[in-house]
Amino acid sequence: MAQKRVTMADVAKLAGVSTTSVSLIMNNRQGTRLSAEAAIRVRAAADELGYRPNLTARALSTQKSHVIGFISEQVATDRLASGLIRGALQEAKRHGHVLFIAETEGEEGAVHDAVDALTDRQVDGIIYAATRPQSLHVPANVGSTPVVMLNAVSDDVADSVLADEYKGARNIIRLLLDAGHTENVVVLGRSLDHPADEWFTVAVQRRLAGIWDTLRERGVTPIAQLHCQPWSVINGYQAIHDLLQANVQPRAIICLNDRLAFGAYRALGEAGLKAGRDVAVVSFDDDDIAVYLDPMLTTAAAPFEEMGAHAVRLLLDGEHTPGEHLVPMPLRIRGSVKVPEKVGSRIEHPDDETNWVR
Amino acid sequence: MAQKRVTMADVAKLAGVSTTSVSLIMNNRQGTRLSAEAAIRVRAAADELGYRPNLTARALSTQKSHVIGFISEQVATDRLASGLIRGALQEAKRHGHVLFIAETEGEEGAVHDAVDALTDRQVDGIIYAATRPQSLHVPANVGSTPVVMLNAVSDDVADSVLADEYKGARNIIRLLLDAGHTENVVVLGRSLDHPADEWFTVAVQRRLAGIWDTLRERGVTPIAQLHCQPWSVINGYQAIHDLLQANVQPRAIICLNDRLAFGAYRALGEAGLKAGRDVAVVSFDDDDIAVYLDPMLTTAAAPFEEMGAHAVRLLLDGEHTPGEHLVPMPLRIRGSVKVPEKVGSRIEHPDDETNWVR
DNA sequence: GACGTAGGTCCTATGGAGGCC
DNA sequence: TGGCCTCCATAGGACCTACGT
Q1: Residues B334-349: tens digit of each pLDDT
Q2: Is B55–A120 a contact, with Cβ atoms under 8 angstroms apart?
Q3: Distance CA A79, CA A247 (A)
Q4: Which of A8, A168, B68, B205 is 20 to 30 A distant from B326 in Cα terms?
């Protein structure tokens, strides 16, 4: 027999005041001269009854639900990008907000439905997230609800939170070169002269640009560009396998993501070579598998948690300047690159703030 | 300039009826004699204005929010158990519900706070989930909100959804034995005579019981029980490594989870042995890494999605009989066990319904 | 037979009322 | 007669529903 919740009216009765007074006092409204004594009575009554305001009713009356909607294709389930949710969740909690989660599973029209489901419940804002950076369409039924794109961009929305691919790429390449691996360098994942295709997203463009700009600055010319899409374990394996078969001996491999690196490890292993010892390997993302590898992978981490948190902050802060918001990619320096002691300490990192090593 | 949403009143005015009529018609209430013609007018007006009911207001008046709260320590972020959320999400969506997600990150008092945050928003029910089956305390402030434990149990709550560890174990062991691997069997992860400790949860007990009951039934006596906790890659590696050093040659390894299996693969590899070819390996969970391994791992999958969906169903169905709800663990038959063609087709699976092979 | 009125859900916002010196 | 302090009535917010016309 669901005993009902305590309402303001109950508190008011016990304290001998009106519900108005209870509301004013419980919300600590300034500028209203209610006697200190009344305030004490009301608070005591509220405590005694265990009163908690009904946020649904409050939302109805204030038009602010303190709820944020989180739409994604598969974020909650994608092990790489679930960090996005986690970051958003924590930040939302710190602001007394809660998250509605809706996943579209890539179904047609599911985004539209999700938006309906969320706006029908008066969310204060919507985060539209993707597991891989891409351009998405935001359905018109969001109406006037603020939207922030997370790990994605959209023509329909001003704000988007992205990883700083360019600087991240510069930093990890600098790390590689500073450690002395400047000969027989191979770039695995995408070649520069390949025509633009569906995989060639903004994020990829910037990642590539960061890599090549830095190589050129240092006067390093790779001995091979291995193109393969998608960036899967098997494709990484195949590419390096073929390279070795052709009797080309890489001394450093720049992998465009961790899965390619995983594949590269295998191909190297079959040839009796070992990452870290015979071949330096750097990569991107800091996928979970990065630390399962032997040796563990040095990689520029996708800063998902921080990105998720930032998206929430943007939504709650109406004052920010709209546009692209770039979050630094921290380097995870591990065994796949041998960094000589003396070199390690004098590695230059002009783009300093992006170098969150841990 | 947030143009306001259209309300029932707007529709009523356009259709020339009262809001009552709009409510009755939009909700398809039976037994109310409104003219068919009025219904048509109302629907047309609603369409024209793009009317959508405000679910916050509806929740306030009906006391049903069509929202389910999902509390967990780290489910959204745990790559193994995020399937729980996904399943819940899909099932909720199918019933027109939406999920609030709250994570506790294991902080003290966070569960209590999460419950407050959810009940303040009038959720219709709460799912309390864990990444590893365990017994949890449910704070009293849930009040009369229905709660279902997911991948967990609690003294405070009747309903819990768990994987059917016992039958799952029986089935995977049968598979192994039916494939002819009955000699030199090793059990990796926990030994029977080890005293109960924090790791010895109900789930583990049942998993173990399923394994040993089946071995005994078939008259198979393992040549070794390797005990190690936690069930990590490194511990799995170490245990098998030591075994091989001691010159014991296993022909079949029953791993208590996939991470142990991963470690076992490595130790075997170093000794020039290969899973599937020289040693049959079976395991539990169907972690993501299971398909990254070479050969891919044969394992009894933790049916997380189905469990999540089931929890939602329980919450929405007030009529079910309370108690433990066991969800079958499907076998994922892959390369780590060689199943002779003729054997494969005549493997017996008395516990039939649990054998969702895919 | 076909519909509307009024009151309920719980909280907030506003103006104004009563008491006292 | 005013001014100050303390408080509350009322009117929303958008919806549902029992009853009445």
Answers
A1: 999 987 655 444 444 4
A2: yes
A3: 36
A4: B68
